[in-house]
Specification:
single chain, Rossmann fold, N-(1-d-carboxylethyl)-l-norvaline Dehydrogenase, domain 2, 2 domains, eight-stranded mixed beta sheet, two-stranded antiparallel sheet, binds 1,4-dihydronicotinamide adenine dinucleotide, binds 1,3-dihydroxyacetonephosphate, NAD, glycerol-3-phosphate dehydrogenase (NAD+) activity, lipid metabolism, phospholipid metabolism, NAD(P)-bd_dom_sf
Length: about 350
């Protein structure tokens, strides 16, 4: 049995927190909050899964190796789960996000709502916090994103995340709720950039998994991560995000962890593809969400519409959707026109400034 980390500081104020989603990340967040002494309800679709979790304190399907706090109350009763809570974390895969959060309408009073989902909606290209704005108008909204592999959080590996919102009070509350000796929460006001970073990096994790399975080296993976970052930032800037956000935990931080870790489901899908499995087989064997697969097609279409150069996205799409030969695609990518290393103009601005001051 793991020891509690209950917050015993005099200023500690227990909150009532609801987590929507019975998967790995929802469970990891519920566990942190419950161990800190908050009242935590975790909503999941399956009545049997909820009953089993309350009985055994183990999420058998998603995190069978870890015992969760006995203080988490799992429930399949949605209205009960969200009644009278102060804050809601939503950890539902992007494809089902709207259908679940639309049920919050008129039920949540003043509760703040935080999306933890790293994906894009197919029909609208909406990010999850935009869906929250549409489905629960008037609510206070934030996004939690960063290098946060659920299993490492459950193992109490030291981890940092980002809470992003224009709402300063919301950021402060989430920091207070989740901060403990193994989990640090940084704030950022660029909600859109933070959220976009979390969604985009999944694509490059698939590429990294694929490259690793094919026996490509560390030089290759480093190139993929760095050029992936350039591509992500280029795309995000075109959509109006701040490229500097991509230098933080929710950008390069999350990109590194998902491109380097075999715990990443997106990496694992890529790895399985590299072993010659079909996309369907890879997803089926995973049995959990790998958001990057859907995000890939959506981002490729959007990049074409906006005329953004994304060769890695194009290459992965050619391999896994158009079934092109991996070696041919890689060779075409390598033989493309040579580009400059760093493309943003910050450096030019600094040099221009220096030439004035020196
Ligand atoms: N697992 C991780 O390490 C992290 C995951 N995330 C993000 O969190 C989101 C959720 O991921 P996980 O919890 O890992 O996924 P998961 O695959 O472990 O679990 C997904 C959960 O959503 C539930 N679900 C699916 N459709 C539903 C519906 N229509 N109604 C109600 N529940 C439904 C499933 O039953 C399951 O409990 C994803 O967008 C992921 O990118 C973010 C950070 C870390
Ligand atoms: O977002 C994550 C880590 O920050 C989890 O990545 P996967 O969804 O690829 O497992």
């Amino acid at each position: 049995m793991t020891s509690p980390v209950t917050d015993s500081t005099p200023e500690f104020q227990p909150c009532t927190i609801t987590v929507l989603g019975g998967g790995s990340f929802g469970t990891a967040l519920a566990d942190i909050a419950a161990r800190k002494g908050h009242v935590v309800r975790q909503w999941m679709r399956s009545e049997e899964q909820a009953a089993e979790m309350n009985r055994t304190h183990i999420n058998q399907r998603y995190l069978p190796e870890y015992e969760v706090s006995e203080q988490i109350e799992a429930t399949s009763n949605f209205d009960y789960a969200v009644s009278g809570c102060d804050l809601i974390f939503v950890a539902i895969p992007s494809q089902h996000f709207r259908s679940v959060v639309s049920r919050l309408q008129g039920k949540v009073g003043e509760a703040m709502i935080i999306s933890t989902t790293k994906g894009v909606e197919a029909e609208t290209f909406d990010l999850m916090s935009e869906i929250l704005h549409e489905e629960v108008p008037g609510s206070r909204i934030g996004v939690l994103s960063g290098p946060n592999l659920a299993k490492e959080i459950m193992a109490r590996q030291i981890t940092a995340t980002v809470i992003a919102s224009e709402d300063e009070e919301l950021c402060q509350l989430v920091q207070d709720i989740l901060h403990c000796d193994y989990f640090r929460v940084y704030s950022n006001h660029d909600r859109y950039g933070v959220e976009l970073g979390g969604a985009l990096k999944n694509i490059y994790a698939i590429v990294a998994g694929l490259a690793t399975a094919l026996g490509m080296g560390d030089n290759t993976r480093s190139m993929l991560i760095t050029r992936g970052l350039a591509e992500m930032s280029r795309f995000a800037v075109k959509l109006g995000a701040n490229p500097l956000t991509f230098l933080g935990l929710a950008g390069v931080g999350d990109l590194i962890v998902t491109c380097e870790s075999r715990l990443s489901r997106n990496f694992r899908v890529g790895y399985a593809l590299g072993e010659g499995k079909s996309l369907e087989q890879a997803q089926q064997e995973l049995g959990q969400v790998a958001e990057g697969v859907n995000t890939l097609s959506l981002v490729r279409a959007k990049a074409r519409e906006m005329d953004v150069y994304m060769p890695i996205v194009d290459g992965l799409y050619a391999i896994i959707i158009e079934n092109k030969n991996i070696r041919d695609v890689t060779s075409t990518m390598m033989m493309r026109e040579q580009k400059t290393d760093v493309e943003f103009l910050l450096q030019d601005n600094i040099m221009a400034q220096n030439s004035v001051t020196h």
